[in-house]
Amino acid sequence: MSSTAAVPFWRAAGMTYISYSNICANLVRNCLKEPHKSEAISREKVHFSLSKWVDGKPEKPNCHVYKLSCF
Amino acid sequence: MFRQATARLLSRSAAASPKARPFSTDLESAPAADQAFVDAWKKVAPNMDPPKTPLSFMKPRPPTPSSIPSKLIVNFSLPYASELSGKEVDMVIVPATTGQMGILPGHVPTIAELKPGLMTVHEGNDVQKYFVSSGFALVHANSFADIIAVEAVPVDRIDPTLVQKGLAEFTQKLNSASTELEKAEAQIGLDVHSALSSALSG
């Protein structure tokens, strides 16, 4: 870090603002009452399929489910 | 060599002091459509309306009024929803990192980072309570306030038993954390859960 100004504790630990705010949002989602909780968590899921290309042909794609907060 | 430098510096500071850089709210709004393009379009396709650009869907905001208006206009946006859109309210209290910040009509333009905490929207005797996880509040000179958050929920949707459980869990995690990153994560968890429990009690 180039700046010597006071930084929040999470920044000093090497976290970025995006990861900090995603962790905060995720913790809030986990504390909701039931119908809202599963709704909020399912909203954050991202589905994508990933396949490697070998000899100009794609291999069998495997589906991934990622939570946005993993990034 | 520096004879003129001081003069230039002085004239610059004198020119800058009465009016600093203008705010975006002081500038005229950009025209929604390019007239030359509209004319050319009419020549080619006289029966069709010219295509609209994003700019033509945006309502220009009013200039800064000379007297303090009676209402504050709030836009409260989440990534998946627009909770409040152009709502006229009396006051908003947001949890800024520097402490609870009350925004009234005619507030000075500010950008405030939000921490996990309670946000209240006051409209007459009606008070709406939200819990925001983190975000920013942008207050403009013309009594517009844009509040953005990653997650925000009405307070009555929070489960108190889960909050107490999380509070205990992260207190224990903070004690057992070894690396700097784990410690920071546990500290964030503790901050969020204690903000949640104080929002529920207060």
Number of domains of chain B: 3
SSE class of chain B: alpha+beta
Task: Give the helix proportion of chain A (percent range).
Answer: 25-40%
CATH architecture assignment of the largest domain in chain B: Sandwich
Radius of gyration based on Cα positions of chain B: 24 Å
Number of strands of chain A: 4
- Strand composition percent of chain A: 15-25%
Keywords (chain A): ATP synthesis, CF(1), Hydrogen ion transport, Ion transport, Membrane, Mitochondrion, Mitochondrion inner membrane, Transport
Subunit structure (chain A): F-type ATPases have 2 components, CF(1) - the catalytic core - and CF(0) - the membrane proton channel. CF(1) has five subunits: alpha(3), beta(3), gamma(1), delta(1), epsilon(1). CF(0) has three main subunits: a, b and c.
InterPro entries (chain A): ATP_synth_F1_esu_mt, ATP_synth_F1_esu_sf_mt
Subcellular location (chain A): Mitochondrion inner membrane
Brief sketch in words of this structure:
Chain A is 39% helix and 23% strand. By secondary structure, chain A is an alpha+beta fold.
Which descriptors apply to this entry?
heterodimer; A: 71 residues; alpha+beta; two-stranded antiparallel sheet; 4 strands; 23% strand; flat; B: 202 residues; ATP Synthase, domain 1; 10 strands; elongated; ATP_synth_F1_dsu/esu_N (chain B); mitochondrion (chain B); ATPsynth_dsu/esu_N (chain B); membrane (chain B); ATP synthase subunit delta', mitochondrial (chain B)
Provide a descriptive summary of the structure in words.
The complex is a heterodimer of chains A (71) and B (202). Chain A is an alpha+beta fold. Chain A is built from three helices and four strands; from the N terminus they run αααββββ. Chain A has one domain (9-70). Chain A has helices spanning 9-12, 17-30, 34-43; strands at residues 45-50, 53-54, 57-58, 62-67. A two-stranded antiparallel ribbon of chain A has the order 1-4. In chain A, β2 and β3 (57-58) form a beta hairpin. Chain A is flat, with a radius of gyration of 18 Å. The mean pLDDT of chain A is 81. Chain B starts with a helix and ends with a helix. The longest helix of chain B is centred in the last third of the chain and has 22 residues, at 180-201. Classes of the chains: A alpha+beta (71), B alpha+beta (202). The interface between A and B is medium-sized, with 26 and 27 residues.
